[in-house]
Amino acid sequence: MSDLSCADPAGSVGAFLCRAGQHLRAAAIENPRMEARLLLAEAMGVDQSALLREPRAPVPPPAAARFGEMLRRRLAHEPMAFLLGRQGFWTLELEVSPETLIPRADSEAIVEAALAVLPSPGGRVLDLGTGTGCLLLAVLSERPDAFGVGVDLAPGAAALAARNAAANGLAGRAAFLAGDWATALSGRFDLVLSNPPYIESAAIPGLMPEVAAHEPARALDGGVDGLDAYRRIVAALPDLLQPQGCAVLELGLGQRAAVSALAEAAGLAIRGCHADLGGVERALVLAAR
Hints:
Layout: H1 13-26, H2 32-44, H3 48-53, H4 61-75, H5 80-84, E1 86-89, E2 92-95, H6 108-117, E3 124-128, H7 134-142, E4 147-152, H8 155-167, E5 174-178, E6 189-194, H9 209-212, H10 228-240, E7 241-250, H11 256-265, E8 268-275, E9 281-288
Parallel strand pairs: 3-4, 3-6, 4-5, 6-7
Antiparallel strand pairs: 1-2, 7-9, 8-9
Helix pairs in contact: 1-2, 2-4, 6-7
């Protein structure tokens, strides 16, 4: 049964999906059929399967209004995750907002690398630039004895991460605060995580509009060479890590050599680098000497 049947009655599920799919395709949105279903299901408060079962069912006026507004925003290339207000990551469902980067599957390589080096039972974990809290919360979900601290420059992001901890049953083992990287912290950690801004400033306008126009610039812009945040983080790591502690940093494409050089200059050892599912060297593992 097609979900884009323009032969369905005006005002029906099928007709709404047909028109939305056409608009999304014209706006160069990938997977227009799937996105139309996601938006209409969200607006109507039903599962997508209900749309496919009853394409001739009427769309109630309040749902039609919600759908129209969500479609308008998506046609302006606002990310789907911001329209829905949530995004899946690892085994968690997380609240997202324009104050944070949207968690991406590529970053799950950082979680895998972290779990490989964090003792079990786990110890103290620090997440610098926590955003939604996705990295820290994913690690805590797999290490029930670990405790973590997440830091973000934006107070709104730190508050959002705390809500995500509570929603996923992890509030008792996670604390979040607003701060400038590690400057407000004392004490040492068994594991430090970070997905810092690493895109070269000049490259940001050329990113897909969902990213360049809607995700927070402070979480994207890594300076002229993309390495500004790494310089600050690796300089702080020797004072943050326990003697046997490790750090796992997310990398951008082709950044392994440059970030490794910064880490070695700071007195850190390179433990390895994990690739994401696309084969990109994504998770650099560092250790205290």
